[in-house]
Amino acid sequence: MTDEAPKTLKSHGRLSISASLKPRDLMEEPFRVKGAWKAKIITLFPDAFPGVLGLSLTGKALDMGLWALETIDLRPFGIGKHLNVDDTPAGGGAGMVLRADVLDAALTKAAEGTSQDRLRWPIIYLSPRGRPFDQAMARRFSKADGLTMLCGRFEGVDQRLLDHHHIEEVSLGDFVLTGGEIAATALIDATVRLLPKVLGNQASTEEESFSHGLLEHPQYTRPAVWNDLAIPDVLQSGHHGEIAKWRQTQAEEITKTRRPDLWQAYLRRKS
């Protein structure tokens, strides 16, 4: 297993450096930002990454070394001639379950160079039965040194693995995907954009949806009139106090109408 382990690493961006058996020209070493946030992803489909994370602002930040991405291919940790990573469910039932011993080996590899403190380095399993992912969780993850994500497949993973490693289960919502890769991409994107210097304008993250418990107010831009629809006068008044009041009122009305659950939580926090 140790001979195969280096093959499981796939680095993305300028910050991630994996071990190599071949001499490397020092001039080709990727730039590393000290203390940069890092995501480690255990997956059967490492080629799914970086995907859209390599584009736009997250991609630019990845290239600049503001964060790092490392994929760990689960398959080489598999058992037997065919490198099996799953088996039938105990007690019977449809589908297959990812094996605890296989995942444990992959997590051991992923743990190299990371903190054992789960506040500094959470381990996440993307699961429809997990706690709903929200902006507060994204902010918590962005304050950590990094995180490890386990992308499930099939019917799930052996519960003993989750219990042994104190893995936090996180869900994107009340629906089921074929695997955790899409969910991991969304979670990373929501977290990375909160890192310093990634967006360039930190104030923008303070005004958007969920930042203060409300959905975001409507946005407008030029032209001032489009299809006989005009930008609200208050937004063109130059009166910043009135603009702020209008945006607050709009955010409250939208939240009350579209997300009664968020509205009630907002009212409880205010009282």
Structure, explained:
By secondary structure, the protein is an alpha/beta fold. It folds into two domains: 5-192, SPOUT methyltransferase, trefoil knot domain (Alpha/beta knot, 3-Layer(aba) Sandwich), CATH 3.40.1280; 212-270, Orthogonal Bundle (Trp Operon Repressor, Chain A). The chain is 30% helix and 17% strand. It is built from eight helices and ten strands. It has helices spanning 56-64, 100-110, 135-143, 159-164, 181-192, 203-207, 240-258, 260-270, and strands at 9-12, 37-43, 67-73, 86-87, 97-98, 123-132, 146-151, 168-171, 225-226, 229-230. It has a six-stranded mixed beta sheet with strand order 1-3-2-7-6-8, with helices on both faces. β9 and β10 form a beta hairpin. α3 crosses α5 and α7 crosses α8. The longest helix is centred in the C-terminal third of the chain and has 19 residues, at 240-258. It is elongated and about 70 Å long.
- Elements, N to C (H/E): EEHEEEHEHEHEHHEEHH
Give the domain tally: 2
Large-scale geometry = elongated
Strand order of the main beta sheet, please? 1-3-2-7-6-8
How many strand units? 10
Query: What is the radius of gyration computed over CA atoms, rounded to a whole number of angstroms?
Result: 22 Å
Helical residues, percent: 25-40%
Reported CATH architecture of the largest domain: 3-Layer(aba) Sandwich
Please give the oligomerization state of what you see: single chain
Residue fraction in strands: 15-25%
For the report, how would you describe the main beta sheet?
6 strands, mixed
